[in-house]
Specification:
- The chain has a domain at about 65-103.
- It is flat.
- The protein contains five helices and two strands; from the N terminus they run αααββαα.
- α4 packs antiparallel against α5.
- The chain is about 80% helix and about 5% strand.
- By secondary structure, the protein is mainly alpha-helical.
- The N and C termini lie far apart (about 40 Å).
- The chain has a two-stranded antiparallel sheet with strand order 1-2.
């Protein structure tokens, strides 16, 4: 089993997963419960990915300037700032914390 074998297997599985998505009957997708679950799962997965990328480096948990940037961006979101402002606030917070000596 070579690396190329596993790459091809992953491509086939991804293609088949997408194909199965097209074969789901429209009646199932129009169900309000399915739409609510799909929306909730999307938000949960995005939040967990964001948090994992914030506090993890390789196999270690690290508290550094990324966490401060996430908190600053969350505060900007809570204050209902536009998305571009949220990104700039997060970047500025990370830059400021790194300037103060945090890794």
């Amino acid at each position: 089993m070579t690396l190329w074998f596993w790459i091809i297997v992953a491509c086939v599985v991804g293609f088949l997963t997408k194909l199965v998505g097209y074969l789901v009957p429209r009646k199932w997708l129009e169900n309000p419960r399915v739409a609510r679950v799909a929306g909730t799962l999307t938000i949960g997965l995005l939040a967990s990915l964001t948090l994992a990328n914030t506090v993890a480096t390789g196999q270690q948990l690290v508290l550094d300037s990324r966490l401060g940037a996430l908190v600053a961006a969350a505060v900007a979101l809570w204050l209902k700032a536009p998305f571009l402002v949220v990104v700039i606030v997060g970047a500025a917070a990370a830059a400021g914390l790194r300037l103060l000596g945090l890794p």
